[in-house]
Amino acid sequence: EAKRMELAAAFELVRLAYDVDSTEDLPQEVNEGADAAMWFRSGTRLGDDREHFYVLPLDAAHKPLSKPICVSSGLLNGTPAGAREVFAQAVQWQAAAVVVAHNHPSGDPTPSQKDIVLTEELIAAGKVLRIPVLDHIVLGRDSFVSLRDDEVVKGW
């Protein structure tokens, strides 16, 4: 009986660790890459060996409408994300703008050429839908790259 209670308590601690729902320590507005990175780090699993692509829907004041939403999970070096998945969530949440992000399981947040091309495609789709893509964050193990802040993509 004691062992059963001990295991039940351990499982409950793990459940609580993955079920944290607090956003009070996060920026209430997303105005730069660091703000967005904090939101994405709060909703992602660190050390994952697969790439995941997320969208953060924002209202007109750039306040998040939800936690980051995983729209695609892939392999070690890619995930099949695109405008359809990103903007389906944006429309569902009636977002005025979005920020997107994905992790690099290698730990190196340096954007690849595919990351840059995808960002350009998302920006173009956002212009058509009038839902701007404010940034694309690449999450590494201990750091991140904001494609907008670092001016990786021109014409933002």
List keywords for this structure.
single chain; 156 residues; alpha+beta; 5-stranded mixed β-sheet; 4 helices; 5 strands; 35% helix
Structure described in brief:
The protein is 35% helix and 19% strand. It has 156 residues and is an alpha+beta fold.
Report on the architecture of this protein.
There is one protein chain. With 156 residues, the chain is α+β, with helices and mostly antiparallel strands. The protein is 35% helix and 19% strand. It contains 4 helices and 5 strands. It has helices spanning 2-18, 33-42, 83-92, 113-129, and strands at residues 52-58, 69-73, 97-103, 133-139, 144-146. The protein has a 5-stranded mixed beta sheet with strand order 2-1-3-4-5, sandwiched between helices. Strand 3, helix 4 (113-129) and strand 4 (133-139) form a beta-alpha-beta unit. It is globular. The protein starts with a helix and ends in a 10-residue tail after the last strand. The model has no long low-confidence stretch (mean pLDDT 88).
Helix/strand layout:
Blueprint: H1 2-18, H2 33-42, E1 52-58, E2 69-73, H3 83-92, E3 97-103, H4 113-129, E4 133-139, E5 144-146
Parallel strand pairs: 3-4
Antiparallel strand pairs: 1-2, 1-3, 4-5
| N→C terminal distance | 61 Å
Helix percentage: 25-40%
What is the N-to-C succession of helices and strands?
HHEEHEHEE
Q: How much strand content do the residues show?
A: 15-25%
Instruction: Determine Rg (CA atoms, Å).
Output: 17 Å
Largest sheet: 5 strands, mixed
**Would you report the number of β strands?**
5
Our count of helices gives: 4
- Characterize the overall form: globular
Find the structural class using helix and strand composition.
alpha+beta
Poorly predicted ranges: none
On the 0-100 scale, what is the average pLDDT? 88
Question: How is the largest sheet built, in terms of strand order?
Answer: 2-1-3-4-5
